[in-house]
Automatic annotation (TrEMBL):
<protein>
    <recommendedName>
        <fullName>ATP-binding protein</fullName>
    </recommendedName>
</protein>
<dbReference type="InterPro" id="IPR021456">
    <property type="entry name" value="DUF3107"/>
</dbReference>
<dbReference type="Pfam" id="PF11305">
    <property type="entry name" value="DUF3107"/>
</dbReference>
Length: 78
C-alpha cells in the first residue's frame, strides 16, 4: 500500500510505502488524530517512524497495492 499525505504550507506531498497498518486501521488512526488533536504516528516496515501534526494535514490518499503483470498482455490478431 502506498500512502500520499498532503501537508498545508508544503508544496510537495509526503509519500510512504509499506506502512504497517491496513487501510481501515489507517483511516481510524487519522480520524482519531484529527478528533483528539494528537500527533499522528505511522510506523514503516523498515522500522522508521513518521510523526505528523494533525493541524498540518491537508489530505491523506491511500493507494492500494496493484498487481504487476510480467510478460505480454493480450495481443490483438493482425
Amino acid at each position: 500500500m502506498e500512502l500520499k499525505i498532503g501537508l498545508s504550507g508544503v508544496a510537495r506531498e509526503l509519500n510512504l510505502e509499506d506502512v504497517e497498518l491496513s487501510a481501515d486501521e489507517l483511516k481510524a488512526a487519522v480520524a482519531h488524530s484529527l478528533s483528539t488533536d494528537e500527533t499522528l504516528e505511522l510506523k514503516t516496515a523498515k522500522e522508521g517512524t513518521v510523526l505528523i501534526n494533525p493541524k498540518s494535514l491537508a489530505y491523506v490518499e491511500i493507494v492500494p497495492e496493484q498487481k504487476r503483470t510480467v510478460g505480454f498482455g493480450l495481443v490483438p490478431n493482425v
